[in-house]
Amino acid sequence: AQSVTQLGSHVSVSEGALVLLRCNYSSSVPPYLFWYVQYPNQGLQLLLKYTTGATLVKGINGFEAEFKKSETSFHLTKPSAHMSDAAEYFCAVSGRGYKLSFGAGTTVTVRA
Amino acid sequence: SQTIHQWPATLVQPVGSPLSLECTVEGTSNPNLYWYRQAAGRGLQLLFYSVGIGQISSEVPQNLSASRPQDRQFILSSKKLLLSDSGFYLCAWSSNTGELFFGEGSRLTVL
């Protein structure tokens, strides 16, 4: 079985500051890992994914995440926050089957 | 390219009324299809998934049902809505790496 824990339900950052969203996973098989973003009243959009290969994954909108097997983590970062980054972010894990398990989500607010 | 559409986008229904939410996918064949629900402060809950026509798996016991009458059509239904059915419903399809592609969502308010 797979599960995800996102540390911190709310994160507030200043515009231009580092964004760091934490995600730890549990999986009985080598995982596929994903980060999604959701803006109000919209569906989820994929930011980036890790399946195999390079452990540092770059995604859209300047985000990146690093798969660390030894720490069972897949933290999401962005060097410089923009006002448009205000949204809810979900980490998800798949055991290479049909179903993703999602974390509870982290809401990001960006202060001017 | 693949697209996914859900409708209606917004729905306000009285308790005890029926429900039908529809989802269609274009640009892919034999997709795995999913219905998720987001209730306020409760993250994403997988309700149903389907690997083919007429094949539905339910993840949680509830007042809802799902059907897949065609390869790229997925319908979420209820005969009698409850207040607890309110939420944001998301349809999705998956690629062969498990990545999900989501529709725009349908917001249901049961009064």
Overview of the structural elements:
The complex is a heterodimer of chains A (112) and B (111). Chain A is built from no helices and 11 strands. Chain A has strands at residues 2-7, 10-14, 19-27, 32-38, 44-50, 56-58, 64-68, 73-78, 87-94, 100-102, 106-111. In chain A, the strands form 2 sheets. In chain A, strands 2, 4, 5, 9, 10 and 11 form a 6-stranded mixed sheet that branches. In chain A, strands 1-3-8-7-6 form a 5-stranded antiparallel sheet, with no helix packed on it. In chain A, strand 4 and strand 5 form a beta hairpin. Chain A is globular and about 40 Å long. The mean pLDDT of chain A is 93. In chain B, 0% of the residues lie in helices and 59% in strands. Chain B has no helices and 11 strands. The mean pLDDT of chain B is 92.
Task: Provide keyphrases for this structure.
heterodimer; A: 112 residues; mainly beta; six-stranded mixed beta sheet; five-stranded antiparallel beta sheet; B: 111 residues; four-stranded antiparallel beta sheet; globular
Terminal residue distance of chain A: 41 Å
* Largest interface by Cβ-Cβ < 8 Å: A-B, 23 and 22 residues
Mean of all residue-level pLDDT scores of chain B? 92
The gross shape of chain A turns out to be globular
Sheet having the most strands of chain B: 7 strands, mixed
Q: Report the span from N to C terminus of chain B.
A: 38 Å
Number of distinct helices of chain B: 0
